[in-house]
Amino acid sequence: MAKKCVLIFNLLFLMNFIYSQNEVFVKTGTIKYSDIYDSSYYGGRIEPLNTIVQYSSISGIINNIYVVEGQRVVKGTHICSIRRKLSSESYQPAVVTAVSSGLVVNMKIFNQMEVFEKSELFSIADDRKYKVDILISDKDILNVKLYDECYIKDFLSENESKEMDKENHNKKENEIKGKVNKIAILPGDNKGLFNAEIVFDKTNDLFIGKFVTLELRTNKRNAIAVPQGSILKKYGKLFIYIVQSDNTIKLREVKIGQNFGESVEILSGVKENEIYIIQPSAGMIEGDKVNIKKQ
Question: Domains of the chain, with CATH numbers?
Answer without folding.
Answer: 24-36+223-292 (2.40.420.20), 38-48+128-220 (2.40.30.170), 51-127 (2.40.50.100)
